[in-house]
Amino acid sequence: xxxxxxxxxxxxxxxxxxxxxxxxxxxxxxxxxxxxxxxxxxxxxxxxxxxxxxxxxxxxxxxxxxxxxxxxxxxxxxxxxxxxxxxxxxxxxxxxxxxxxxxxxxxxxxxxxxxxxxxxxxxxxxxxxxxxxxxxxxxxxxxxxxxxxxxxxxxxxxxxxxxxxxxxxxxxxxxxxxxxxxxxxxxxxxxxxxxxxxxxxxxxxxxxxxxxxxxxxxxxxxxxxxxxxxxxxxxxxxxxxxxxxxxxxxxxxxxxxxxxxxxxxxxxxxxxxxxxxxxxxxxxxxxxxxxxxxxxxxxxxxxxxxxxxxxxxxxxxxxxxxxxxxxxxxxxxxxxxxxxxxxxxxxxxxxxxxxxxxxxxxxxxxxxxxxxxxxxxxxxxxxxxxxxxxxxxxxxxxxxxxxxxxxxxxxxxxxxxxxxxxxxxxxxxxxxxxxxxxxxxxxxxxxxxxxxxxxxxxxxxxxxxxxxxxxxxxxxxxxxxxxxxxxxxxxxxxxxxxxxxxxxxxxxxxxxxxxxxxxxxxxxx
Length: 525
Ligand code: HEM
Fold this sequence. Notes:
It comes from Hygrophoropsis aurantiaca. By secondary structure, the chain is an alpha+beta fold. The chain has 19 helices and eleven strands. The strands form four sheets. The chain has a five-stranded mixed β-sheet, with helices on both faces. The chain has a two-stranded antiparallel sheet with strand order 5-6. Strands 8-11 form a two-stranded antiparallel sheet. Strand 5 and strand 6 form a beta hairpin. Helix 7 runs parallel beside helix 19. It binds protoporphyrin IX containing FE. Protoporphyrin IX containing FE binds at residues 120-121, 132, 303-304, 307-308, 311-312, 315, 369-370, 373, 453-455, 459, 461-463, 466-467.
């Protein structure tokens, strides 16, 4: 009886809090200045336009909206709340440079912090500034120069594995899922380079690493937007209800924390040992960061694993896909790469290869692994604009008014492929464009390469140099050794967003994300 009453009153309280939250969202809807901005109609009472957006191949829906409604528009998110979408560079620059005023929304922080704890990707304000200050030097050019050796050693290991794995028993090239191999390679790299830890995930004879397995479960791509987990993100009182997703996250989190603690213990032991010079990024952070608590350092382990692993592996996979679609680019790249004698060039030698640089830039432009991100206004504000827009009432607006709590979608991919910025061939893969990139793109407020790929401002990607040299080391090693052709028609490859844009095969619904090339050893004439 008492239990029943308790259950009843808990449920009533949960429902009460839920209704209050929904009420607040409805009030926001009718009072926010975003209500006057034009855009597509909602297509679902619960998810707004989100279902269609995340199912649209390569996020083309964003580009279609911009085409139809102009540079500044509004669409609908969860519970049909308005989201601002703008490709206006001045407005985006304002949002990214004022990172205290435009933070990640609470539901996003909640879901990230479930996996990452209080890592640098999640924390805000003074805590973020402190963590970045301590970590930035570990990602500087000097540190990445030292890590080039690790990137190349793992690339060579992958090359040697593919030499046999990509052939059938008769010695003919067989369809190989290069995404899975890239994922193993980048996990091994982040383990070694990040915290001197050997995952051995390239070594398939060893039982699959438990951390790797935890990851796979966590990121096993499901393209559907599910109701209860979404409701839990937006209505905190519902987070008490257990879900399968929640169970998976707790399992993955426990695995990462356990391994993280071991790593931290080893790192501390290594710090005490003046002979041990081989330190990873996390050891360097804990060395430098006397001001970071063990908890803070621990939180960086899953942060680097999540942020630095799948992003780089999908980027390199898309680079190889692009090369299969442009055999002339593949051949020209190979010729440049073979101009170096050594299998193990230095970072400076890799950086000095202009065509490799063009291929990497073009991949990160056309196939940006993180296609969008999201922010919420922490106060009422005015966004300055380069291009005025006409609102729903036919009034021309020279700035965008936002109110505290308004959500803003940052369209990374749409900016990187905007015809207004890059010209009519913006969507095509053309490494040559980097010989003289257009003036109009130089105002893109990104930290690297006039691209939004790594975002910009104080919250830009900390690992972009790390990633660039890792991608270059991989392409250098693999394209010298192999010729890549696609094993399925190119139109059968689609992109779907989970945390990153992953490749799927349209004609194989239900199968995991994959990229299936034929890989044939290249023999110099
Ligand atoms: C091609 C590869 C990569 C891409 C496209 C990429 C992209 C991004 C983007 C877009 C953000 C901003 C997310 C947001 O605030 O909404 C970000 C943040 C971050 N990235 Fe990367 N990243 C890549 C590789 C890496 C690597 C290799 C590492 C680490 C080794 C890394 C570590 C981080 C961290 C720690 C943050 C959070 C920074 C902060 O909030 O201060 N990333 N990345």
